[in-house]
Amino acid sequence: MSVQAKPGSEALELLALVRAAERRLVSRTLHDEVGPALCSAGLMLAALQETGGETAELARSAARALEQALVAVRGLSYGANPELAMRCGLRSALQSASRTLGAEFTSSGDPPWDAAAASAAYETVRSLLLLAPGGAPRVSLSTSGIRLSGLPPLDESVPSALAASTPGLRLRWRGSILDIEAGGVPE
Question: H or E element: which one contains 166?
Answer without folding.
Answer: none
